[in-house]
Write a structure and sequence with these properties.
PH-domain like, four-stranded antiparallel beta sheet, three-stranded antiparallel beta sheet, 3 helices, 7 strands, elongated
C-alpha cells in the first residue's frame, strides 16, 4: 500500500494557521485597550478569537490531502471527502508540465487532481508518481482508450507480369 501526503504545504498550512490564531488573539486582546471611539465588549473579543479559529481551520484544509493506493485502486482525498477509484477506471497517472500537482486521468478526458503529490515536494513527488504509476501498470486491466489503434500499412498490389517499368516512365 502506498500512502502519500504533501510535506511543504502541510508545514506552511500549520504555520499560517497558528500565526493567524495568534494574530486574532492579539487583536482581541488590544481591542478593548485602545481608544477608538467604539465600545468593544468581552463578547467582541471572543468573536474575534472565534473568527481567527474558523479562518485557521479553513487554512488547515490545505493540510488534509492524501492519496492511498493498493492493488484494488486509489483513494484520493483533497480538501473534501475521499474519492475511491478502481484501477480499471484510471487511464493514466500524470503530472503535466508546469502543473503544481499530479492528476489521475479518467475516460472521456476527465481527471481527478491529486493534491497530495505536489511539485514543491521535489523528489518525494517524483517517488510518489513512480509508485502510483507502478501500481497502476501492475493492476490496470483496461488498455488506454485514448491511444490510437495501430493500423497495418497499406498493401501494395503486386506488379503486373511482364511489366518492366518502361511504360510508366520508370528506369
Amino acid at each position: 500500500m502506498l500512502v502519500v501526503r504533501p510535506r511543504r504545504v502541510r508545514r506552511a498550512a500549520w504555520v499560517c494557521a497558528v500565526a493567524m490564531v495568534a494574530t486574532f488573539i492579539a487583536v482581541a486582546w488590544f481591542l478593548r485597550a485602545t481608544d477608538t471611539g467604539v465600545v468593544f465588549r468581552f463578547a467582541d473579543q471572543v468573536a474575534m478569537v472565534l473568527i481567527g479559529v474558523f479562518l485557521a481551520g479553513g487554512v488547515l484544509l490545505l493540510a488534509r490531502p492524501r492519496v492511498r493506493a493498493d492493488a484494488d485502486g486509489v483513494e484520493v482525498r483533497n480538501t473534501g471527502w475521499p474519492r475511491y477509484l478502481p484501477w480499471e477506471l484510471v487511464r493514466a497517472v500524470s503530472f503535466p508540465d508546469g502543473a503544481s500537482w499530479a492528476r489521475l486521468d479518467l475516460p472521456d478526458y476527465e481527471y481527478v487532481p491529486v493534491l497530495a503529490v505536489q511539485a514543491v515536494d521535489g523528489m518525494r513527488a517524483v517517488e510518489a508518481i513512480r509508485g502510483l504509476r507502478a501500481l497502476h501498470a501492475a493492476h490496470a486491466s483496461v488498455p488506454d482508450a485514448t491511444a490510437p489503434a495501430e493500423t497495418p500499412p497499406p498493401v501494395q498490389p503486386p506488379p503486373a507480369s511482364g511489366d518492366d517499368g518502361a511504360r510508366s516512365g520508370r528506369p
